[in-house]
Structures are given as structure tokens and as C-alpha cells.
Specification:
- It is a single chain.
- The chain has eleven helices and eight strands.
- The protein has 213 residues and is α/β, with parallel strands linked by helices.
- The chain has two domains: 4-17 and 81-212, 3-Layer(aba) Sandwich (Rossmann fold), CATH 3.40.50.1000; 19-79.
- The strands form two sheets. The chain has a six-stranded parallel β-sheet, with helices on both faces. Strands 2-3 form a two-stranded antiparallel sheet.
- Helix 3 (44-52) crosses helix 4 (56-67).
- The chain is globular.
């Protein structure tokens, strides 16, 4: 029996711009207004080390506890998210030919909020289409391992033809699992060479409309 064809999408920074939410989370944790440009050029670990001093590990954990809504204020910050330009249009077009599946480092406690957010933005969300990290600890300690396990579950159920992600650390997994079209959304903090296991590199969603459709 032929499996249903699917597109797998990462969420944060791939189809959803969370920069304002990340800035707000750091404001809560550090009491500082870190420029968006700095947040885009440096990961959360680097920011925690730069501003957290000797307590950077607890600062890092506090940031992620807010971002992944383990603390009440995290859910309130979701309103700051916005869709990446043209992502809704492209994904909606793909949904006419493929099942849309979301593979995210967001944790399962955010499932309802994430589905509601994506639908509000205009993304197609079917029941069972969200594959999420089991908890904060596992996500922070082994993001690659969590990503591989979740993706293997998806591949058991669907014929995954396309995967889109902004984080190059996962693309060796995507290649190992033989996903034919691996699209990297280029971010300023990374070099093009970092996406060497991607089959397509794009710096905006508008270009993907013509590439795939």
C-alpha cells in the first residue's frame, strides 16, 4: 500500500518568525533589551554566556522554560509571533498536493497553543500533524536525537518527499533518512556551507513557490 505523500516543516524561524518573542523572553530573564540583530546572529547559548555571567546555565534554562511555555508568561508571548513572508501562501499551495506535517522542537505541552497559532496565521493544520519534542530536558540535552526519532515516526506513516528547516545541524539526519528534497532556509548566523546536506538553499519563501510548484 502506497503511503500518503507529505511535506515536513520545521516551525520556529522556518515558517514562523519568533524573533520578537525571543527578545521578550530575554527581557524577562535578563532585564535587558537585546537588539533583534544580535539575537539573529547569536544562538541562545551564546546570549546566555554573554549576559548571564557565572549563572549562564540557569539563565539559559530560564529562557527556554519561558520560550517553551513551561512558565505561564510563555503562552502570553506567543502573540508576538508572525508568519514568515510568503510561507503561508507556499505551504497552502503544497497542501493541495501533499499532507503537511510539522516537526518541531516545541514541546508537547504547547501542542494546542501551536495548532491554534498556526491556524490563526493561515497554515493548514490537520489532526495528528504536529510532531513535538516530549519535554524540555530531552530537547535541550539531545535535539538531534529527538529530531531523528520523531522523523522516523513520520517516515513510517508517510512518503516524505520534501522537508524544510532553517537549522543546518539537522540536515545530515534528513540526508541519512533519504528525504529527496531537503530545503534549507538560510539564516544570517549560518554560512551557505553549513547547509551542505541540503539539496536546495533559499533565503526567502517566495523563491520556493516557483521551485517546488
Amino acid at each position: 500500500m502506497r503511503l500518503e505523500r507529505a511535506v515536513v516543516l520545521d516551525i520556529d524561524e522556518t515558517i514562523v518568525d519568533t524573533s520578537a518573542r525571543r527578545q521578550a523572553a530575554w527581557r524577562i530573564v535578563l532585564g535587558l533589551e537585546i537588539p533583534l540583530e544580535e539575537l539573529e546572529m547569536h544562538g541562545s547559548s551564546s546570549i546566555a554566556k554573554r549576559y548571564g555571567g557565572l549563572n549562564y546555565q540557569s539563565v539559559y534554562l530560564k529562557f527556554w522554560s519561558i520560550l517553551l511555555c513551561y512558565e505561564p508568561e510563555g503562552f502570553k508571548l506567543l502573540k508576538l509571533d508572525k508568519p514568515q513572508p510568503y510561507a503561508v501562501e507556499v505551504v497552502s499551495s503544497w497542501s493541495r498536493r501533499y499532507r503537511i506535517i510539522y516537526l518541531t522542537g516545541r514541546t508537547v505541552n504547547m501542542e494546542s497553543a501551536t495548532a491554534e497559532e498556526l491556524r490563526f496565521m493561515g497554515f493548514p493544520v490537520d489532526p495528528g500533524s504536529l510532531y513535538m519534542a516530549p519535554d524540555l530536558k530531552q530537547y535541550l540535552e539531545n535535539p538531534e536525537g529527538v529530531r531523528r526519532i520523531l522523523l522516523e515516526e513520520i517516515i513510517d506513516r508517510y512518503d516524505v518527499e520534501i522537508i524544510v528547516d532553517d537549522n543546518p545541524i539537522f540536515f545530515d539526519i534528513y540526508r541519512d533518512l533519504c528525504i529527496p528534497t531537503r530545503i534549507g532556509i538560510l539564516r544570517p548566523r549560518f554560512k551557505i556551507d553549513d547547509y551542505r546536506y541540503a539539496s536546495v538553499i533559499a533565503d526567502n519563501w517566495r523563491s520556493l513557490y516557483s521551485i517546488i510548484t
